[in-house]
Amino acid sequence: MPTDFQQVIATPTGAYGEGLRFFGGVGCVNNTLKRLVKDLEDRGIAYSVIGAIALNQHGYQRFTQDIDLLLTQEGLERFHAELVGCGYRPAFEGARKKFRATTENVPIEVITTGEYPGDGKPKNIVFPEPESVSIRIDGVQTLTLEKLIELKLASGMTGLGRRKDLADVQELIRMKKLPATLAEALDISVRAMYLELHRELELADLAEQEKQS
Question: pLDDT tens, 68-84?
Fold first, then answer.
């Protein structure tokens, strides 16, 4: 009988066990991701994973309960035409961008090229064509680190309740020891925020060194 992801994570013990499986490269989310990647690539649908899956692809391990996917509008239409009913279903009646994997009931959310991060209002930073901002990591087309940081900064700066995106960027800086000069590769609208987050970490390190001296 297929495993229902929603039932698995409904209890603390189940969620903990699924988290361990996730970080081990198995479990419901990873199994769904592998099938999803194969289904998209078999049909030639351009995609890139974004969100928490992309964070994990870049080495920042954070458990997630869904898969965020960047598609073009054409790719979304093909997803509906070729994959809905063949391993995937709308998350609810009339849903256009939210799906569930039929086998394990893992949520899949699609963002399309041309959407704006955060508050959804027009800004310098926009979700781009997936093929133009992807690198292949462990067999999965993944948003580049610079573009992931740029989009998360724009989201955290403008979206209500999206401060977690800024925390994700700061954790990437800490974990990957990213330089302040990376700001030069980002859109000018988010450079100051990147540098602020970077400086906070430098000050925290100095404070820790003074405490231990």
Answer: 999 999 999 999 999 99
